[in-house]
């Protein structure tokens, strides 16, 4: 009976993990959220039977340790740790790092710090809290959700300067995942970064944004956006086929190794 822990499970891709994984009655599915009640109500309303919702905050390490302690009372090990929680800045969707004058400089700095605190340090917190339980598993897979916008080649070739705080923090996170792989691959733990593709999570790209044009330049026959459930199903296939020995520390698309970041027709 595999145990899955989904960090950042309240909505979007995280909640889609709960829905998808809970369809298999053999799975134990544990979702970590900052506010338990609304997510628990949704789980109950949707009839997800084998899902447990626990409190945890990526920026508060002690809350993750407490969550790990509670998980240990549910399962002896964690087979899959899904790091989905993230901060996506709205401030820099259409503003670049040079667009902040002196009066707004502190806002830019705070946004960068918040991005790295949540998207990098927060994931480190989650991994460190749950790694002892992951090591007890025979499966040992730690999967972190990244973004295609963290691909330097994509950014450079197609001029994607937007969302600098988000994409740069995710690029740093990819390197952190590689570091974990370097340390723990000998113990058989798979550490892998995955881009989920362009997913409809309810957010909107501003009308004056040039991102859609750049994405279509990258993938002229793009099919976008996909649903959270579609993204999760794609990623599950990639993870199922991945091993520590062959794929540890890599950064893959939801479509797999060396595949495009976006879906094509």
TrEMBL record:
InterPro entries: NAD(P)-bd_dom_sf, SDR_enzymes, SDR_fam. Transmembrane segments: none annotated. GO terms for molecular function: oxidoreductase activity, acting on the CH-OH group of donors, NAD or NADP as acceptor. PANTHER family: CHAIN DEHYDROGENASE (ATSC), PUTATIVE-RELATED, SHORT-CHAIN DEHYDROGENASE/REDUCTASE SDR. This is NAD(P)-binding protein. It comes from Cyphellophora europaea (strain CBS 101466).
């Amino acid at each position: 009976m595999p145990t899955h822990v989904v960090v950042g499970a309240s909505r979007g891709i995280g909640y889609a993990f709960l829905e998808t994984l809970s369809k298999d009655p053999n799975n134990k599915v544990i979702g970590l959220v900052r506010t338990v009640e609304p997510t628990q109500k949704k789980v109950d309303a949707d009839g997800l039977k084998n899902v447990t919702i626990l409190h945890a905050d990526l920026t508060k390490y002690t809350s993750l340790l407490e969550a790990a302690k509670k998980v240990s009372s549910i399962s002896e090990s964690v087979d899959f740790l899904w790091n989905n929680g993230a901060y996506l800045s709205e401030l820099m969707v259409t503003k670049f790092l040079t667009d902040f004058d002196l009066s707004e400089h502190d806002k830019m700095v705070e946004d960068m710090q918040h991005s790295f605190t949540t998207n990098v340090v927060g994931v480190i917190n989650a991994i460190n809290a749950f790694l002892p339980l992951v090591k007890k598993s025979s499966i040992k897979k730690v999967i972190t959700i990244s973004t295609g916008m963290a691909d330097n080649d994509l950014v450079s070739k197609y001029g994607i300067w937007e969302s600098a705080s988000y994409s740069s923090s995710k690029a740093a996170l990819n390197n952190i995942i590689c570091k974990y792989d370097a340390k723990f691959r000998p113990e058989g733990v798979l550490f892998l970064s995955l881009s989920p593709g362009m997913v409809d999570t309810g957010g909107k790209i501003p009308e004056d944004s040039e991102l859609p044009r750049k994405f279509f330049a990258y993938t002229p026959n793009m099919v976008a956006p996909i649903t959270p459930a579609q993204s999760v199903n794609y990623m599950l296939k990639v993870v199922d086929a991945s091993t520590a020995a062959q794929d540890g520390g890599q950064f893959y698309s939801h479509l797999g190794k060396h595949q495009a970041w976006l879906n094509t027709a």
